[in-house]
Amino acid sequence: MLIQCTKKLLDELKVTPDTPIEKDPLFSWHANLLKLGRKKTLVLVNDKNRYAIVLYGLKAKDMKNIDKLILKVVRETFQAECIKDEIIEQFIQHSNNVVFSKTKDRTSVARMNKACEYVYYFEDLLDNDAIIQVEMSLRISSLLVGDGKNSYIYPNKEMYTHLEGFAGQPIFLSEAVELKVTLMLEKYSVWRKIIVPTNTTFSNLHKVVQIAFEWQNSHLHEFYIYPSNTDAKVIPINRDKPIVNLVCDEEALSYQGDIPMKMETGIKLADYLPVRIIYNYDFGDNWKHSIEVVRMIEDYDVNFPVCLDGEGHAPPEDVGGEPGYEEFLHIIGDKNHQDYEHMVNWGRRQGYREFDVEEVNRELRR
Questions:
Q1: Could you give the CA distance from residue 69 to residue 71 in angstroms, rounded to a whole number?
Q2: Which residues form the DUF6933 domain (predicted)?
Q3: DSSP 3-state assignment of 294?
C-alpha cells in the first residue's frame, strides 16, 4: 500500500519518504494530517475512487504504528460496509507492505483537501472515544464528487465496483435481521417491516426509522433495550424493565437513573440481538415505536437497508402527539372546515404524505 503524504504528515511521522513506485491506484492513498480542536486527525483518500477513511485523536504512540492502524481502519470500515471477510483479507494482504512517499500531483492533493473539508463539516459525527472513525468514513465516502471529466461519482459505489473487479466476485454478504417497527398509537395502525444488516449501529438504525416513517429528524431520540423472551426463560429477568437506555445526546447522561445509560455511538444491533426495542422520537410529541425481531437472515447480499412493507401514514412533525394528530385528521378530512387549506399545506411542509414503499427504498439506498 502506497501512502502519499503531505509535508506536515511526513514531519509528524518522522519518516524519510520513499521514491514513489508505480502501483495499482486501488492500493494507493493520499493522506493529510488535520487538527480538530487539539486532536490530530488523519484523512486518507483512495487514488482510484476517492473513498475516504479517517483516524482521530492520534497520539505519538499511534504515529509509531501508523502502518498497522491504517490497515486496521481499512478492515473495520470495509466490515461496516458489509463486504465479505474473505475479500477484505485479500485486500489487506495485497496492501500489507505500507510505503510512505510525497504527494503525487495537484489534482490528487485537491481531491484529498476536499475530503478534509467534509471532515470539518461533519465534525459532529466524530466519536470522541475511538481512533477509527467508521461513521465519518462512511458518510464522506457516500457524498457525490466530481471526477474531473464533467461528471460525478459516489466514491463508495466506485469502491464497490473496483473491489468486485479485484476479487472477481460479488463483494457483499452479511447477517441481517428483519424488524417490524410499529408506531405505538391507540387508534391508528402505522408500521413498517425493514431489513437491516446486524452490524448497523443504533445511530444508523435511527436514520433508517426516520426514513421509513418519513420523519424529519428534527428532534432528539433514544432507544430502550429490553430482554428477549429467550433471555427471560434462561435466567430470572424482568422482561418489562429495560437493560439499557441508549441516548443520542451527552447531556442526557447527566440524568442517570436505575437503568444503565449509554451513548448510542458505535453500538451495533448485533451487540444486543435478539431483543425487544422501544425507539422514542421527539420527547414533546412522544412518538414511541416498538421494534421486534421477525427473523434472522444469514446471507444478506446487499449492504443497505430495505423496507419490505408497511401500513399507514406517519403523523406530521410537531402535530401535538396523538390527540393533535386526531384533530389534524379531522380537519383535513373535511374540505368545508375553515382551516382545511391551511392544515393541508402545513401537513405537506411537515412531510405528511402517503406511505410509498418504493420511495422509502430509494431514500434508504441513498
A1: 5
A2: 2-158
A3: strand
Strands ordered across the beta sheet of 276-281: 261-263, 244-247, 221-226, 276-281, 287-300, 174-183, 190-197, 306-311
What is the dotted CATH code of the domain comprising 174-365? 3.10.290.30
Domain 2-167 has what CATH class? alpha beta
Task: Give me the residue label for grid cell 479485484.
Answer: 166
Q: How many CB atoms lie within 10 A of CB 250?
A: 10
**Which long-range contacts does 121-128 make (Cβ < 8 Å, 24+ apart)?**
123/36, 126/36, 126/56, 127/56, 127/265, 127/266, 128/57
Domain boundaries, the chain: 2-167, 174-365
Q: pLDDT tens track of the chain, all 366 residues?
A: 999 999 999 999 998 888 767 679 999 999 999 999 889 999 999 999 999 999 999 999 999 999 999 999 999 999 999 999 999 999 999 998 899 999 999 999 999 999 999 999 999 889 888 999 998 999 999 999 987 778 899 999 999 999 999 999 999 988 999 999 999 999 999 999 999 999 999 999 999 999 999 999 999 999 999 987 655 444 555 667 999 999 999 899 988 888 999 999 889 999 999 889 999 999 999 999 999 999 999 999 999 999 999 999 999 999 999 999 999 999 999 999 999 999 999 999 988 888 999 999 999 987
DSSP character for 148? S
